[in-house]
Amino acid sequence: MRKTEVPESVRIIGNNIKEIIKEKSLKVRHVAHDSDLDIEALRRYMSGKQIMGIDKLMRIRKALDVEISELFRKI
């Protein structure tokens, strides 16, 4: 059985998270910890390999200290 394709918007959000981490000179492990996420889960979200729920999106937003709209830029 073939896995379903992840929507482009998921990849864009993941890339936005990656860019914000880089812009703010943060460490992925610290963002994962502050988001109460496993570092590998955060990496899957950042690479667009896994769809995240609203609750996880909100925790990541809080850890990055950005408005939710920042995660949706370029969509």
List the topology elements.
Blueprint: H1 8-23, H2 28-34, H3 39-46, H4 54-64, H5 68-71
Helix pairs in contact: 2-3
Explain this structure:
The protein contains five helices and no strands. The model has no long low-confidence stretch (mean pLDDT 94). By secondary structure, the chain is mainly alpha-helical. The chain has helices at 8-23, 28-34, 39-46, 54-64, 68-71. Helix 2 crosses helix 3 (39-46).
Overall pLDDT metric: 94
H/E order of the elements?
HHHHH
Unreliably modeled segments: none
- Helix coverage percent: 55-70%
N→C terminal distance: 30 Å
What labels describe this entry?
75 residues, mainly alpha, 61% helix
Concise summary:
The protein is mainly α and 75 residues long. It has five helices and no strands.
